[in-house]
Structures are given as structure tokens and as C-alpha cells.
Amino acid sequence: MPAANNSHTHHASVSSAQRSVLASGLGIALFSSAVFGLSGSFAKALLETGWSPGAAVTARLTGAALILAIPAGYALRGRWHQLRNNWITILLFGVTGVAACQLFYFNAVARLSVGVALLLEYLAPVIIVLWLWAASRKRPRVLTFGGTLLSLAGLVLVLDLTGAVKVDLVGVLWGAAAAVCLAIYFFITAKENDTLPPIVLASGGLMVGAVVMWLAGATGLLPMAFSTADTRLGPWTTPWWVSLAGLVVLATVLAYVSGIMAARALGSKVASFVSLTEVLFAVLWAWLLLGELPGPIQLLGGVLIVGGVILVRLDELRSAAAAAGGAAAALQAASPLEHANDVEPVP
């Protein structure tokens, strides 16, 4: 009898420990979404003083890469061969998931409200569903199909085709390009192995992205315009470096590191699910710091887009549970989203 009591106590303590880990992981994931959501507001504050999107992305990636190189080097001590074994993954992540994705997003932010630009980028899972449907000619499962239709309906409202809110067509195309980059990144890393520490993937990707941006600027392919004019953040007028430091330290370094910590505590699928709250935080920060808020119709559309993506994510989690029951190979072949990444190229 005492043994049974001890066993019960042990299970209770384990369960309590698991709940504690999940609770702390959820808090970290929400913090990561909150600081990631700051990037659009900090970037727009710089863009409005004369910075070009390319210059803002380049400064962001360079500063973050230099800071994250320290913990990445520590994680790689004695295992430098991992860089050589995974250089293609790092290169593709840097070019697609970091440089192109953020450049397109910042170009969208320059022409649209922060919330609308980010909502367009979050259509990536829907793009993947539609692409797989066209390629395989097999209709998605009911939950995924419903989520896709819901997101597309939300997109119509976000674009506000009735004209109540003027939406810049070029900005919409930039936002759609960011979504395509995000989708390509998920395809590329769908079967990525786990031999590379996430902090190394994040740091390496930022370094590759920074090099790509500097080369594009040096060759004249990408306009580079910097400014030392003061920026406006809410009621405050701040030196330009305050917005840049916020973009680098808060919205990049802290965001990536906390995102990795959340993925390890919750599992990357659940963490990426929670990361959808970034849209809500981005809209909130843009309202508080920039005084911009999407119109009521656009906000309703945003709710539909996020709701649709949640349904697609839920279907992923359900299919993952089915895969654990024995159909892993078939499901892996059917959906590139079965692998959720520890480091996602969210702006």
C-alpha cells in the first residue's frame, strides 16, 4: 500500500512538473510573439524617416547576427562539423527564410499598415495547401479545406475590395511575395534533420541573410538609404538608433532566442501554433506606437485569416497524432508541414 501511495505521489509530481514546463513554455512563446510583433512598428518608424526597406533589413540582420554569433559559437564547441554537414539548410534558410522574407515584408510595411502586411504573410500555410492540392489533385481533408476557404474569405475582407479603406496594390504584392517565401521555406525544411542546434540555424541564417543583403546593396541591385533623423514611437521622439536597437535586440535576438526556448518546452508544432498570436501583438503595437489600426472590415478579415490558419494547424496536429499511430511514412509524403521547424522565418 505505501508503495502504491509513493507511485501515485511520483505520478502527481511528474504531472505537476509537466504542467509547470508547459505553463512556462506558453509564457515564453507568448513573449516571443510579442517581441516579434514589434518588428513592423520599429521598421516603419525608420522607413518614415528615409530609410529604405533594404537598409532596415540589412542593419537588422547584421546586428542580430553579430550578437547571436556568441551563443552559436558556444553551442558549436567541438562540433564544428555540423556546419559543414548542414550548410545547404543554413544557406537556404538565410536566403529564403531570412533575407527575402523580411525584405518583402518590410516593403509591404512601407506601403500598408503593419497588421495587413503581416496577415498577408500568414497566408503561407494556405498557399502550401493550394499548391499540394494542385500538384496531387487530391482534395485536402475537411478541416484543412475549411481553414483554407476561411482564410481566403478573410483575405477578401482584408483587401477591402469595396474601397472603404484604400489598399496599395504594390504593397499587397510585396506581402504576397513574403507569404510565398515563407511557403518555400517550409517546403525546403520539411524533412530537415535535427543535427543542427536551433540557435546555430538562427545565427547562421542571419549571417547568410546579412551577407546577401550587403552584396545586393554593393552591386546596386538593392537601394540602400540610411537616415539619422529622429524617429517617432507613440508620443515619444527618439534618436534613430533607439528604433534600430529595438529592431535588432528586441524584435530579432530576443524574439529568436525565446522562440527557440518555447519550441523546446512546448514542441515546435505547438510553439508555432502559439506564434499565430504575433498578428494580434503586431496590430496592438502598431496601434500604440504608430497610431495605425486596420479598418473594422480588415480586422474581421484578419480574424478569419487567423481562424483559417488555426484550422489548418489543428489538422496538422491531428495528422501528427495519426502518424504516431503507424501511418507516419504516408503522412510525411502527403504533407510538407508535418515537420514544424524550431526556427521559423517570422518577421
Note down, in words, how this protein is organized:
The protein has one domain (24-338). Helices cover 76% and strands 2% of the residues. It has helices spanning 2-36, 39-47, 53-75, 81-85, 87-111, 114-121, 124-136, 142-159, 169-188, 198-218, 240-266, 268-274, 278-290, 296-334; strands at 231-233, 236-238. It has a two-stranded antiparallel ribbon. The model is unreliable at 9-14 and 327-340 (pLDDT under 50).
Write the layout of secondary structure elements.
Layout: H1 2-36, H2 39-47, H3 53-75, H4 81-85, H5 87-111, H6 114-121, H7 124-136, H8 142-159, H9 169-188, H10 198-218, E1 231-233, E2 236-238, H11 240-266, H12 268-274, H13 278-290, H14 296-334
Helix pairs in contact: 1-11, 1-13, 2-5, 2-11, 2-13, 3-5, 3-10, 3-11, 5-6, 5-9, 5-10, 6-9, 6-13, 7-8, 7-9, 8-14, 11-12
Oligomerization status of the protein chains? single chain
- Indicate the proportion of strand residues: under 5%
Largest sheet: 2 strands, antiparallel
Distance between the termini: 56 Å
